[in-house]
Every structure is written in structure tokens, then in C-alpha cells.
Amino acid sequence: MHYVADDNQFNYGTVVNNATLSQKPPVYYVLLHIIYSTFQSVDIYRLGFFINAFFLFFSALLIHKIGKLYLRSSWVGLAGAITYLLSMGCFSATLCITPYVIVDFLAICTLNLHLLALDKEKVPVYALVLLFFVNIIGNLTDYSYLLFSIILSLCVTFSFLFLDHMKSFSLMLLETILSLFFTTMFYPSFLLHIGTGLISSWHHFMSKTSMTELHSDSLSNVGTLLNQMFSKTFYIIGICLFLLFICSLFFKKGTFAQHWSNFKERAYHGNFADLLIPALTLLYFGVLTYFYGSANYYVLTTTLPFIFLFLSYLAYRFCHALIHSEFNSGLITTGFLLLLSTVSLAISEPHLEFDQTDNTVSYAEETETDNCIFITSDTLSSQNHISEIASYNQSIVISSTKLNIFKKQISLKDLPSVIVYLSNDDYVNGTIDKLTKLGDFLVAEQLASKVDLDGNSIYIYELSKHPV
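Above: the chain sequence. Below: its structure as C-alpha cells.
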């Protein structure tokens, strides 16, 4: 059981400071801290589940609304909402304490407001105001939202430019700039974190020996998404469904000139949500792969609402082209996707962030290093990991608050590589960054994130001077 300590209740300053040191935005953790401080007798993980379920409910309502209003079918929205709720990725993210369910909700809100702006000849003032506040909250919830909102804002803003709606173009551009400015005003570390992330991602990208590894990350993420959607046994079914649904795009009769004329008419009225959603999803997936590689399971779940919404739309169009009945097409589409998602969920196990016991003695042999740094804390004691530490020829046990000792007594610069063990209490990102700078390491790679025999969350990193 995990609770907030009595002397740490409603201590927002500490929460924000910890988020800053860990290079994370603070809103999600402040929200958790408020709720956990209020309900002291309830386990943290149970409260985390109910928080995620609350936002998940409203996400489903918004998905249904987008399908009904902008994809012109309530069946599309219903099928998209159901398949998203029953997907393994959504189920796993809901069970874990992660901000990505809330990021999903905010991203769907943002998409809804942008589609509303496109659907109107003039951008409503209330939509701009709501978008302004949603963007600030989203930016301060998780930085994956920032990537999504920037891509969506660019797509919609330049759509207004293409449609020659200069006033709408200027208003949307101004709103994006102001939301970023006020985000920085509320959380000054925002710019530092984004800059650090960009530099780190650029170095990671440039360290690739070829495009092969980037291609490998993309394929790995595609496999992860299929697993989140239909489980591993449904890879082939998922691919076949997608290819089959793509055929629905060609079921409308007419010449190319007629199709182009129809597209221009729709574009003039801002009615191209069925084109914006897949384009947005592909761009967002590419950016996530570039910035996160293939290491983060949960951040990919932020693409699921849009993937399921678009697949439901294509499935509905395919059925409607064959049956010519809105009710029957919607019923068949929803029933089929519901059956597929239910069976997939029944035969799969959820992916939990810390669902394994760390029985590994060490990573010394696997990573060809004999050096270990064990960061002690109030919850992570070196006494319970003596055998693990002893497997290394050179082991250093030290507190995260005393890392400066390396400058005086121990030279990290003489070590080609080192394994680092630390826990949540050690401000993982900040501690790893400090060690990387002290030792002039080029690469910091996370090897594992597990739970030890005492129930403590452990992160294991390898710092190396050799590029990947």
C-alpha cells in the first residue's frame, strides 16, 4: 500500500520542485497530490484508477461527438469510443498511474475545438478561449501533448491559410503563441525542459549509425500499437482490416474531376475531418518515434483515440457502400469491432509498468561493464541488494544529494561505462543528467524499470561513452 505521508499533505511546493528536478510538467502530479492528500485512507493505485476512469468516460463522449458532428455519423463515434475503451492500450494505461489517459482527454478536446473552428466560417471566440486554457493545461500535464497540439495547430492554421481565411489564420496562430508564452510564465522550467529534450533527441538521432535503427524503432512502435489495439495474435487481422478499409475510399463512383470538385467544395466549408485525422495521426506517430524511440509503451496510447476513430469511419464507409443502409451499416460496424475488441481483451494480459520482480543478479555480464553506482534513498536500501552490488568489480553506494563527491574523490571520466540503480525518490531524469555531465558520458540508456523483492520501484540505466 502507498500513501502520502502526514507531514507532506498539500505540500505543493515539494511536488512542483520534484517535477522540475525530474524534468516533467507538474499539473498531473499536483492533481494526484491533492486527491491523495484528501483521501488518506485509500490506496494510491485505486485512486489513480478512478481518476483515469473519470477522464476516460468524458473522452468516450467526445469521441462520439466528433464522429457524429464532423464525420457525419453517430455510429462512427459510437464504434470509435467503444473500441478505444476496450483496447488493451487504454486498459493498461487506466490501470497504471500515468498521465496519458488525461493527455488523451485533452488531445481529444483540442481536436474537437479545432474541428469546430474549421466547421465555422469564423472561429468562435469561446472556442479560442477554451483552446487557450486547454493548451496550457495540456502543456503542463505531459510534454507529449505539446507535440500533438503543435502538429494539430500547424495543420489547422495552414488549412485556414489555404482556404484564404486570413483572420482565422491570424487568430489561431496568435492563440498558439500566447498559450506557449503563458505556459512558460506559469512554469519557467518549461523552456529548459523542452530545450533539453530537443537537444537530447537530436543527439540521439545523430548517434544512429544509419537510418536502420530509426526504421527499426518505427516498426517496433507499429507492432506495439497493433498489440495495444488487437493484441499480438491479432497483428495479421489488424493489418488486413486496415487494408480492407482503405478500399472503402475507392467505392464512390465518379471521375477524378468530380472527386476533385467535391473535395474543393468540402475544403471550402472546412469539412475534411476524415482527411485531417489520419494525417494528424501519422505525423504525431512519426514525431513520437523520433523523440521517444521505441522505449515508451504508454506514450503511444495517446494515438489510439484517433486511430480507432478513423478505422471506425473507414469500416462504416465500407459497409455502407455494400449495404446502402445507415442503420444496418452502423450496427454491423459497431458489432464487429466490439466483438473483435472484446475477444482481444479477453485473451490478452494488460501491460503494467512495474509488473515484474527484479530477479536479475546484475547487468554486468550483459552490458560488459564492471562498474556500478547504487543511489540510496529512504525507500531503496543497499542492504537489500548486497548480492547485486557485489557482482560488480567496482561498486559505489551514494546518496543522490551527494553526487558532487565525484568531482573530488572519484573520477567518473575514467570509466568507459557504468550501471546506475536508482528509484523514484532520486529524481530519475535529473540524477541521470547530472551523472552524465560529471562523467562526460555520451549515451544514457534505460535498461529496465521494475519492482525489487521489497516492492520498491527501481530504474536501471547504463551510461556509456560510446555512441549507440
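Residues 354-359 have pLDDT under 50 and may be disordered.
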